[in-house]
Amino acid sequence: GWARLQNFPLFPLKTRLCRGSGAAPTFTPIHRAGYCAFYGECGRNPEVNISLVSSKVPCLSNTPARVATGPLLALLRTVCPELARGSAETTRVCCSLAQLSALQLSVALSGTVLSRCPACARNFANLYCNNICSPDQSLFTNVTRVINRTTAQGTPQLAVVEYQCFYRQYFADDSFASCRGVRLPATGGYAIDTMCGRYGARLCTTQRWLDFQGDKNNGLAPLQIDFQLVPNGTQPGDAVVPLGGTAWRCNQALSAQEQPCSCQDCAESCPPVIAPPGPAAPLSPGQRQRRLGPLRACWRAKKKKGTAPQPAPAPAAGCSARLGDASHRVLARAFRRWGTLVAGHPVTVLAVVAVLAGGLSAGLVTLRLTTDPVELWSAPGSRARQEKAFYDRHFGPFFRTNQVIVTAPGRPSSGYESVVLGAKNFSGVLSEEVLRALLELQERLAATTAWAPVAGREVTLSDVCYAPLNPTQPGLADCCVNSVTQYFQNNGTRLAMTATQTDGKKTGTVDWHDHLIYCVNSPLSFKDITALELSCMAEYGGPVFPYIAFGGYPGSEYTEAEALIVTYSLNNFPRDDPRHEWVLSWERRFLEVVGDFQRAHGPNLSVAFMAERSLEDEINRTTGEDIPVFAISYLVVFAYIALALGEYTAWRRVLVESKVTLALGGIAVVLGAVFASMGFLALLGLPSSLVILEVVPFLVLAVGADNIFIFVQEYQQSQREPGETREQHVGRVLARVAPSMLLCSLSEVICFFLGALSSMPAVRTFALTAAVAIAFDFLLQMSGFVALLALDARRQEAARFDLCCCCGMGKGGPAGPGARLLRPLLHRYYTPLLLHRLARPVVVRGGGRGGGGTALYRDVGMVGPRLGTTGTLWVGAPPQDSYMLEYFAALNQYLAVGVPTYFVTTGGYNFSSPAGINSICSSAGCATDSLTHTIQYATRFPNVSYLAIPATSWVDDFLDWLNPTSRCCRIHRFGNLTGEFCPSTSDPSCLGGQCLNATRRPTVEEFERFLPWFLHDHPTLQCAKGGLGAYDTAVSMDANGTILASRFMAYQSPLRTSQEYTAALRAARDLAEEITTTLRRVPGTPPDFRVFPYTVTYVYYEQYLTVVAEGVITLALCLVPTFVVSFLLLGMDLRSSVATLLTIAMILLDTVGAMTLWDVPYNAVALINLVAAVGISVEFVSHITCAFAHSTKPDRVERAAEATVNMGSKVVAGVAMTNLPGIVVLAFAKAQLIQIFFFRLNFIITLVGLAHGLIFLPVLLSYIGKTPLSPPGDGALSPKCPPGGRWQPPAVPYRPRRTQPTGASGGHSGGHSGGHGGRCRAGCGAGPQQPRLQGRGQGQG
């Protein structure tokens, strides 16, 4: 967007102030009212080598003023009305008609940019008029130097080449003040920037303003005119009377029919503006603690009450308990029959499962991977996507940016003493050597061609570059390239130029230093004031603003910049456009060339660079490079499962007792569920993404591995009953564990289906894929894995080797129990310590200071102030070894301006009506609450609005272009082109053919006729307001000329973090809503008309506006089914269900808090992982809660201990130890996206979930868990058997088991009844075992 800035000429001013104290030796002996100092024209000044306009110097003539008659008087009344004081007989002047005509041209040129403020334009014209035509010219003029000249007729003349002018200080100051605030709508800057030479608007003063305008070296002034500002109340002597008078103030109207300057151009015209409130500061830790104090006190009071629970009589079973018992018996019976059936026909079941899974997996051939970030993170129906589609449809896609940032670390700075411009310090990077290196790079890029294989052609820069001033047939010189070398038009010869310069009594040499100093302060100049006489405009014809080409400079000292920035703007094309391949091919070659440049200059320069395609390239590269990391991660997980599932009683039986085949089969079942779900959804037309491919397998593997461990370990620890077949044994074990698996899987499936209600496409697709994958995983495990277990049991009973069932070691049972580690540790040490009467209050009160459960007030206090904080959206994406990281670091450090922000109007607004124009524009006569005025007000408070530069306005420049005092809008009056548009270049047929005969608003017909002319008018020195390049794409019209959309470009402040980007988006939308409300009040505006802000980043950062609320809603929706399913499947046990819900919620809160501490940003990717965390948390929590609910122990503490030992060991082995090895491997991935969102976040989730499941949950259940039911004698269910359990004879206490007879199941039910003379087969696999090691073990159990 920066390149859409048009050319702005300097002004042919003919004044310069002399700082002397009096008049110099004079050629004006008479200083008297009614006398001239010069008159008429004496040809061109031979001392001026280059002049951008044709102008002549006056002839020496210290004679009485002439009477203005005929055409001269008529023209005087138009150009200098203040001098037309009387009739034809009394009006005298010191200028000829030719001089006044030249003056009219000068006034027209300056009026092009100053006419938007009538007072300034009139004051500026009065300076010209008095200098050239005042009848009292000799009073304040003193000619100091003349040259001899002979006319063509041989008449000798004296041509004036230098003179003095004397002005009163107040008069000059007032004139300057009226113009100081006038804006240039096309740049958002000030008109004074073009009128003060090297000082620019920031350092311009009255003296410097006039100094520059009268400099004969500025390319427009024909001679040197030295002015002296005389302090008020003093006289210069020698009869000289300084010119004074009253200058118009900018807030004054010139007449009753005219308007004062607008607020945008004149601060005195602005109404009082109340500063909007800034963003609220985050709460301090002390404030958070005070606000959360009551919650903390309440929480502690409740816990204190619960630390010494009073024994209460066991309640009798109510209706809900009986209903829950009945439903549980139905589930257990169904799963038992199903397990027996599957175990009896394992091969058939496996064949059916393989066919179904394979058939669904075949749908992967239709899988579409979404790689476009817009499609991933922004919903098609979201506001940002709709606005982007509207913008692209009417204005085309946003430009593609290719950028190089060069610094010179360690290179010393140097001073430079300019003959003309004074002393300046130049940084180390601003040396001729570096400039030539940059020039060499740009020459190589200009000559570079790239092969486009699909198109079958070579692509050059001119094929794809953005060429604002020649968009139809651009050449290399037309391409928009912004760099410091463009101040020399990318020409090495001009960079090497030197010249001898004399400035007063000083003489020296000027070179590129002088030109650069001048151009960075006056980038719109066509000619500097040095003897080099070079233009500051870029080769393509537009200006190069220093805040784009330089970086890291203090204040406005551009020559001290630490970085030089080269920016190539390329056209963007839709992905289905063949030219999209062209630009991708050229960008690929751009990266190669700049990479070579970086390597060649690496010892001396630091080069950071990027192309528009770079980010996607780097993500794709690291995705491929990280595939081995993911493969190793999965292999580690597979190896762990394969080794940990087995139980080993003796070295000689290792090959028999290992479970490698069963583990691989279980993994195949899990992967089959993943592939089948993705294939199924692909057949339904749902696209996937790399994030889903990376997260879903981990999630399903965690869920599936947990179920595998629970099922296998329960089977290993279960003893076959007398007369029971192997198939019945498998069915009985399945009946014990399947309800728990169903509880977890059903909770997760419903959770993810509700999570699919998210508006974010990536979150929605992930949730759907995860829901279907977990559902398929449960179904396949209930069928395929049960069949695999039955086959493996048959093999082991036959003493056949694992992985090679054809071989064996003969009959014979195991020599004793298998080796165990985790279960004895939990039973003997961990559980007694955790549930000790002194430890439990510490766990609850401490809020997890040892890493366990966390008090809710601490979670809220930690999460609150840090949600949504992160670096820019992109920094987390490239890998650590990417060149993009260096570029982003340089961008954040050096870039001094933000991205363009467009305020876009939709269709229906009537721009052609006077009311419609006045509600948009910002010049004289415009409404104070117009669109451009409102944006300009906002830029006064950049800390709130995040806008740094006011909006460009095609409406304002169109009005200036129509101004009859300029040469812009003219019509051919005769000839073949009669009635057609006449460009600003001279043409006799255009004389007197102004489009408007007075300064006014155009009629509807005039607006519709002249607007297309304006939009396609090439800006020239004669008319700098031509719209081509600046506005030709800013207005979208249909074939009938109806405006369908328009845009007004402002600039954001430099933004660094996602918080700033999000705040900028929110502020811009609020500002656009205010503008919309104002414009809807314009008569004829439809109610559906609106103004919206647009920039390329909004579509990515819109997620941050809603990601917190979206996350809370999504996670809350996930927690609801977890509670409901737990409540129903746990026999309507409200307490256990609440404990499950509370623990999972605290896992999520602690996870977000840990994210803050470990610099894991909260965004849509994090939300996906948090949704997955709900599923993993269910595995950590629900199994233990289910085991507690169906335990037969007499009090809560014993039940919590039993559940922790029996089910906690399985959870650790099946979930934590399955996840952790694979997650740790991801720490070695190159992509930061994987390191941050998959390694760090999943590591946090696993450890936090494990800590809450094994530390906080058992203690919580020991306080609030459901009490056992009353004894059978009371008419209720026996406390020895939970609902669905089966009473069995008492078991002996634990002791090592002897070798079983051949054909036994290899399991043992050990344990004792806990004092009730019997034991129960609980439905969650908890069994009646008390918390000690029982039965046969396995690697981790």
UniProtKB/TrEMBL annotation:
The chain crosses the membrane at residues 627-648, 660-684, 690-712, 733-755, 767-791, 1112-1132, 1138-1158, 1165-1191, 1211-1229, 1241-1264. Residues 626-791 form the SSD domain. It comes from Aquila chrysaetos chrysaetos. Its main location: membrane. Residues 1304-1317 have a biased composition (Gly residues). It comes from the Eukaryota. It is a multi-pass membrane protein. The gene is LOC115349854. Residues 1321-1335 have a biased composition (Low complexity). This is NPC1 like intracellular cholesterol transporter 1.
